[in-house]
Each structure stands twice: as C-alpha cells, then as structure tokens.
C-alpha cells in the first residue's frame, strides 16, 4: 500500500482558490474545443498552449492533494438522506390520491418490476404503514448529497432517487415531481438544483448543466406528458474530462454501471452536456446498459414521464468500487464491470493463456506507448528484451476506436505501460492476466496504487510495479542531484498540484534493463502459476 503518511500533512487545498478562478474559464474552453473534436480522433497540433493548459487542468483535478492520514479509509457510513414516505403526507392525502388517480394514465401503471430493487424494498416495507392504494402513487425522493471520502474528495457526487409522478421537460431543464406533501430536500421555491455529473469537482461543475427538480403540489401544476415511459430514467451529464479514457470510465461509465446494471437494460438514459462523438464512441456500452435509444437532454422538446428514476449517478472511487448499502447495494465489483465490458464489446477471453510445457504458444505482451509526456525512451530495448524472454510483443497507442483497442488488450496476457490514462485499458484484460506499471520518479506511490495498482488487484489481475530510480528519469537532466526533486520529492507534493503536474508528470523514463529484467521475469512467472 502507498504510505498515507505522505499525505498526512494538512496541505492548503489548491482547489478552492485555483479552481474558483479557473473553473469557468476551463468550462468555457472545454466548450470551445469540444466541437472541434467532433468525429476526429485527433486535435491536429493546433493550439498547443490550450492543450497544455487542458491537460494541466485534467491532472490538477485527477489528483487533488487534500489527503490526510485517513485518506485510505473508506467512509462507508450511509449517506445523509431525505426520504419522504407518503405516510408523512398531511391529512390532504385522500384528496391527493384522487387527484393522482385522475391524471394517471392506465398505460403507465407503475411498473414495479422495473424499479430499482432498493425502491421496491422500501415500498414493500412501508406499505403496511400507509393507507391502501397509497403505495402505488406515493411520492418519494432520496438525495445522497453529503457523502465524504477524504482521500477522494470528488468521489461522492450528489444524486437523487425519485419515485412517483416524474415529468421531465428538458427544454426547461426541469424535472417536475408531483409531491403533494411538499416534503423533501427542497428550497423555499420547492426546488432542488443538481448538476448531475458523477465527479464532485468544483473545478468542473460550472461546465455541467444544472437540472432542477421542482416539487409541485398536483399533476395540474406540471406540464402534460407527451411521452410516457414504462421504465425508470437516469439523467446525467457527460461533461468534464471525458475523452480521457480514465475519466470516461471513472466519471461516467462505471457510475452508470453502478446505477443501472441491475435494471438489465430496462432504463431510459437522458444525457446532458451531450457530445455526439462521445455517445457514438461508447455506444456499445450504452446499448448494453439501456435497451432504449439515449435522449439528448440538451435538444429534446418533449415532456417525458416516468414513475421512477435518478438525477445524477452513484460513484465510488476511481477504478475502485466497494459494496455500499445505498450506493452499491448490488455489491458490484470491478470483476463484474470487466465482465460487462467483455460482453458489450464481444471480447472473447475471460482468462489468459496458461503456460505449460506442452503448449508452444508464446505469452502475448502489449506495450502501450505514450507519445506526449512520460514516454518510455528505450521502448525498443524493452521490447527486444521481452521478446528474448519469450513474449510475443506488440506495441500500440490507445486510439479513438475503443472496441478495436479493447480487442487488442483482451488478446494480451501481459499489459505494460508507464503510469498514465492508458493503463485504464487493464479493464479489458482477461481475468488473471498481468499488469506491469512503470512508475516514474517522484514518490508517486499514492497515485500508482490508487489509480491502477489496487484496481488491478480488484479486477483479479496479477500486478507488477516497477519504480524508476533517479538514474532512469529525464528529471536528472533538468535538476541537479542535490535538488529536492531527488532529495525530498515529497516537497513537490507539498507544493500542490501545479508542481506535480509541471515536474513529475512531464518526465520521460529510460529503464535500466539490468534492474528491470527481474520484473519482466516476475510477469512471466505469474502467468505460470
Ligand atoms: C451486499 O453485501 C452485504 C454485506 O456486505 C450483504 O448484507 C447484502 O446482502 C449484499 N447484497 C447483495 C445484493 O448481494
Ligand atoms: C543498472 O542497474 C544496475 C543494478 O542496479 C547497476 O549496477 C547499474 O550501474 C545500472 N546501470 C546504469 C547505467 O545506471
């Protein structure tokens, strides 16, 4: 495990100051460049400064050094929630029932089979306490907003779960919620505003469309349904750092999996901050999670009616997910996520090749090449040694075609790369395969472990990590050996994210083959067990 003491010093969180200043600008800039990316895998070498700025911003938010000694302790306490059972409704309830019956279309009988299991349980549990017939029409809203996971301050985004008469008017960015009692987490105007992005990151939130849940006392106060859905809804945003493969998974796809997988496709997705290229890129996964075409919340003109749904998504740590009574009640694991990905992309291999005397097949190694920062400068040399040790080596850069790259990764028995988003591709490896992470200089233990090492273990991969020495980094060409970069790299962390991004994240590495070879042998060895 990474040493948490490294982060025990209370460091001034760079977020609030830098974030507040940059947030809107970043949002604007993201908005500005996104269309350019439309349909193109590459942003041609233009605006290098902007790209540098963006990657800086991304990194800044990936690693927020606000950790303390409890950083590695998962807070598993149930969230502070507001549940509004119908039993709390004032004496107007009988009238309410009548009203609600009046407006309820027989076609849209609450389809209990499609409700999230948790909701169903609650309703069953509460049914005896409520008056007859109330269970079918009761309005219920539960918002999980105050969860905190110290080491991962962005890990507990707000999410509301609703059941009852829900009418979504994307054009007004509003979810009308027929809620006769008025109870719930609403302000004086009967509103609850949420930016439904699964990363609680002040830096990003200004760029996320805000959606209002509006509590109305009767169906008459809500717009008429123009489209009724017999399945629950999830309204969420794909803003933020999407198009960085790590963030595609941590900020959207895994949260969506946690929130909807148990519905087995019987769910309608409404996406805001809609990016056609992003939706297209991940269509195989979206289709696996929802049997219905996604709806573009930013453009849609209808009033969509539902009996249940979520605004926002549940999210855990990045590539680490744990059981939780409300956020992950189905106890999904990363192994489940891997299986889901394999099925969605039709990836054939669940297990790596087993090496034995009688099989002549060479174990396959895929080396992910980085072209920007953190390059492996002697990649050729590494590759030749791997060949010499008996691996069949391919070298590739992760590209825009996710399925194609997923197939290449799934075909590998060993995946090797320098620390970076490319390592996220471990999610496509067959269970039991080996991940080799080369960790650059600069006390990167926390990041190496929490972003890729522990996830690999959770995915039941074999994991080998190699920490480069000061002889193996290009930082030695930039800083004298007696500089704190070498003598006390924790000082870089102490300076906050800008220093980490500028110094640590921008080095290249050249591994010492003598030192590295035993780690390759270990990778080979792991495959034989
Ligand atoms: C999830 O795990 C908890 C204990 O960690 C257990 O009580 C619960 O029944 C599990 N739920 C499911 C759906 O397996
Ligand atoms: C490579 O590592 C070996 C073993 O640690 C060491 O003896 C050797 O001096 C290193 N080579 C270079 C060029 O640093």
From TrEMBL:
This protein's encoding gene: LOC101780400
Protein name, UniProt field: Glycosyltransferase 61 catalytic domain-containing protein
Main location: Golgi
Membrane topology: Single-pass type II membrane protein
Cell location: Golgi apparatus membrane
Biological or metabolic pathway of the protein: Glycan metabolism
Gene Ontology MF, one: glycosyltransferase activity
Top-rank lineage group of the source organism: Eukaryota
Residue ranges constituting the Glycosyltransferase 61 catalytic domain according to the UniProt record: 277-436
Biased composition annotated in UniProt, kind: Low complexity: 81-90
Sequence ranges of Basic and acidic residues compositional bias: 118-128
Keywords: Glycoprotein, Glycosyltransferase, Membrane, Transferase, Transmembrane, Transmembrane helix
Cellular component, GO annotation: Golgi membrane
InterPro entries given in the database record: Glyco_transf_61_cat (IPR049625), Glycosyltransferase_61 (IPR007657)
Family matches, as Pfam families: Glyco_transf_61
Transmembrane segments: 38-63
